Amino acid sequence: MKLSGDAIHEECGVFGIYSPEGLQVSRDIYYGLMALQHRGQESAGISVSDTEGSRGNLKTIKGMGLVSEVFSQRSLENMTGNIGAGHVRYSTTGASVPENAQPIAMNYIKGSLALVHNGNITNAEKLKEEQMRRGQAHYTSSDSEVLAYEVISERVRTGSIEEAVKKAGMRLKGGYACIFMSPRKLIGMRDPYGLKPLVFGRKGGSYILASESSAIRAVGGELIRDIEPGEILTITKNGVKRDEVPIHPERAHCIFEYIYFARMDSIIDGISVYDARVRAGKALARRHGVVADIVVGVPDSGLAAAQGYSIESGIPFVLAFHKNSYVGRSFIKPTEEERKSAVHMKLSIPEHVVEGKKVVLIDDSIVRGTTMNQIIRMLREAGALAVHVRISSPPFLYPCYYGTDVPTTGQLIASEHSPEEICRTIGADSLGYLALSDFTCMVGKLPLCSACFDGKYPLL
Questions:
Q1: β-strand partners of 189
Q2: What is the pLDDT of residues 379-417, one digit of tens each?
Q3: Domain spans in the chain, listed from the N-terminal domain onward
Q4: Is 4-249 CATH 3.60.20.10?
Q5: What string of H, E and C letters represents the secondary structure of the chain?
Q6: For labelling, which of 178, 252, 383, 434 has a CA lying 20 to 30 Å from the CA of 450?
Q7: How far apart are alpha carbons 122 and 132 in whole angstroms?
Q8: pLDDT, the chain, mean
Q9: pLDDT tens column, 300-358
Q10: How far apart are CA 27 and CA 50, in angstroms?
Q11: Are 181 and 195 in contact (CB under 8 A)?
């Protein structure tokens, strides 16, 4: 559980579906986005088209808020079409305003295009300058708009949208997972490093692209495989065609997908997120054992790691927190005092569970330390004799440039304080972090980007 003032946020979630059989797809996109809501809560949107309809006929609805707030039953009924793409957004490179909600839908001389994008284009400013000289982009364009302009610019000179996507992809740097939709084609593209996840699935005769496998299962589909780093998948009425951006760097999959971002029931690059978190908890217990009575996890991403710690240590795992899922998002609270009290509104503790107990408290990360301090205080007020904090990631030390909203170095508590100082600041009896070398316990030999922990960036 993370509150906005002390959180690491993913930028976006994407979902696309094409039914060659002509089935309506807007409801599946809606439910797919609901399953990806954890990846972004600021805005949501859907574009659809009828592949047998008039050329360039894209219908788009988007707005600020959760998926359930942006769409109604009536609006979904009016979005008729058998091909579509949807998006949930948390802003990192652009302001949280309606203009930056996606899909980005554009008309151009050869037709129309809708784009949904997760991640960050690190050379977007350079590309934007070139586009501005050509009279395309403007100074307020987001990196997603820059990407759309880049594809459209190539499309004017090429014979197909998939060829335009490939040529544009050769100019991009950064971490991204994109879905492009023309009125008759659905195209998925993943960055060559594999920094951002993108998976491919099927529901009956329909094909699905999504940020996570859990979204495919949420609509009754089945996962086929991950989109490979640098791969471009084009879906048409004639089937599925594969291509790739001819760039072959070292792979660098984002470790924080397994630590926190992804849903626990997702499988990313062949690895179960749940199993990875359990293994992280086991590694924590081996590295930072302690005498205690119970192990508890901060919901939701701390729970699997807490189970792993319990299995390895033999200390009983208990559910010590009740999470109120119906409390409004904490970042809309108008005052700092209300933001602080949001922890108490979102979490409560049955006192008899922790009273008189020495507690091992597991969470996925400590960013600024304010939320952890409040949770520890709540445990002590409920009667805990000791609180030993264990974190299923190393200390955050560096910002992320690939679409993850890690605060600046000065806002990261670990960048200016030792673990002993952090322990005192949050009010814990002891504090232990996962080590970088423990990542192999989590995900085996999967090549990783762990730049926010070690400062080793795969590209800039």
A1: 178, 232
A2: 999 999 999 999 999 999 998 888 777 666 777 899 899
A3: 4-249, 268-454
A4: yes
A5: CCCHHHCCEECEEEEEEECCCCCCCHHHHHHHHHHCHHHCCCEEEEEEECCCCCCCCEEEEEEECCHHHHCCHHHHHHCCCCEEEEEEECCCCCCCCHHHCCCEEEEECCEEEEEEEEEEECCHHHHHHHHHHCCCCCCCCCHHHHHHHHHHHHHHHCCCHHHHHHHHHCCCCEEEEEEEECCCCEEEEECCCCCCCCEEEEECCEEEEECCHHHHHHCCCEEEEECCCCEEEEEECCEEEEEECCCCCCCCEECHHHHHHCCCCCEECCEEHHHHHHHHHHHHHHHCCCCCCEEEECCCCHHHHHHHHHHHHCCCECCCCEECCCCCCHHHCCCHHHHHHHHHHHEECCHHHHCCCEEEEEECCCCCCHHHHHHHHHHHHCCCCEEEEEECCCCCCCCCCCCEECCCHHHCHHHHCCHHHHHHHHCCCEEEECCHHHHHHHHCCCCEECHHHHCCCCCC
A6: 178
A7: 17
A8: 90
A9: 889 999 999 999 999 999 999 988 776 554 444 445 555 556 676 788 898 899 999 99
A10: 15
A11: no
Is the domain defined by 268-454 classed in CATH 1.10.357.10?
A: no
What pLDDT was estimated at residue 330? 43
d(CA 247, CA 169): 9
For residue 332, the model assigns a pLDDT of 42
Which positions are annotated as active-site residues? 12
Looking at residue 179, what is its pLDDT?
98
| Closest of 259, 257, 119 to residue 175, by C-alpha | 119
Its pTM stands at 0.91
Q: Whose structure tokens read 């049955």?
A: 350
Tens digits of residue pLDDT in 1-31? 344 445 555 569 999 999 999 999 999 999 9
